[in-house]
């Protein structure tokens, strides 16, 4: 029979998913019935064509569509409960850029009791829909009636078929476009970057206009992950989560910058702007991979470039840190390949990697890429490390960190995750400080900055960095710190003065590379003094945009 349960199931699921996003019940019901009839009509025509195939193939095709919609339903319900949204290019781009363990941890972090009950309800309802006996068995329509309906519906639906897909009224169509465009775009820019990289060693070093005056022997960049500065006692947090950083500050070796944000809340776009001359203003006219990157810049300046990472060497489809790190002369990871396990090596493993693989030279540029405080937070700190002072639930309650600013109580689950994040921050303090110590006897300067932040139950029952409609300041307020050894301080007093004068200036990290060059005495054809936080020409009035909002006017306070 053409009007079977499979057809009804697809139409109901598609309409239900679309209607859930509507702001009111009344409007949601209107959308449900509207999308239901459109979907029903479209698949009626498709199933009508299937009816001319052998029964076996017809049943296989119909079942495939049902299974696809069941899978879409499961994924979209998961995303809707956690993010009030469905699969979109941002979510899919994040998936493509994620390592296997990150994707697994993402599922672990967001799989709550509410999600489990909702998904179980959907699965049970789907099974009952197909196996619950019906007393009402209408007679099949005449084949001529089916044909007439096919013609009428085909004309009505397919005359606006493109619009139907563009509006994503058909969730299967929306998924197809998102996945196709995402994979195509990801592969395109990664392949183009690799092609451009082939010419960088010869053409760019010969033609790129760069001068350097200071020749600082040891330059280090530590890239954090998902670290929000508001949870660091260095920036005023109630609990002493950064005792080591505080100690370096007290000794005069550390300088924290108090008003730094990321332009993005996802690693790929954030690091594309942090590690190249791509920025918010030029990103629409020039691709990030067409810009000079920080590693090739330092190679041209005469530095031996070395990349040490505790993130996996291979992601699902490749990512920006992966291809940029490939430009380094030496690239070492705490482990090779991907992992489906939920626990990476702790960041302290980088200390051994450094000792084992570091190659000494007159001028060295080292990058440490941390796992930092990436969710799942409980997996980001070594509970057996006795050098770290961890906290417990009672200490959070004593500090009134179990209460939101409006007086509401944080849920038990939220408080547990908040505690894990705080302990990950404490562990991160240990790791970053140990990296500083590697250079304490050298003439060295170390920059530490996070790619983006995570909002972690700061003012609502929410964690993550999803941006969009959920955007908040806590997803982009990141630590930016400079450590200088005693040798560096004594030989570069003018640089120390420039650093001190810049600590309270407003910075968005897509301008980081300009300040980085300024401090190192490097100028090039891409350097802009108005974008260097250490320059007297720095533009303190730059509008800082995140998720389409003016950070200083709409998000900061």
Descriptive report:
Strand 9 and strand 10 form a beta hairpin. About 1% of the residues have low confidence. The strands form 5 sheets. This protein has a 7-stranded mixed sheet, sandwiched between helices. The protein has a two-stranded antiparallel sheet with strand order 1-13. A two-stranded parallel sheet has the order 4-12. It has 557 residues and is an alpha/beta fold. It is 48% helix and 10% strand. The chain has 2 domains: 177 residues, no CATH class; 343 residues, 3-Layer(aba) Sandwich (Alkaline Phosphatase, subunit A). It has 20 helices and 15 strands. Helix 1 packs parallel to helix 3 and helix 2 packs across helix 7.
Q: Which shape, going by the Cα principal axes? A: elongated
Count of helical stretches: 20
Q: Any idea how many domains? A: 2
Radius of gyration: 27 Å
**What is the CATH topology assignment of the largest domain?**
Alkaline Phosphatase, subunit A
CATH-derived architecture of the largest domain:
3-Layer(aba) Sandwich
CATH class of the largest domain: Alpha Beta
How would you write the strand order of the largest sheet? 3-11-8-2-7-5-6
Structural class: alpha/beta
Distance between the termini: 61 Å
Query: Describe the biggest sheet?
Result: 7 strands, mixed
- Outline the low-pLDDT stretches: 337-343
DSSP strand (E) fraction?
A: 5-15%
Tell me the number of strands: 15
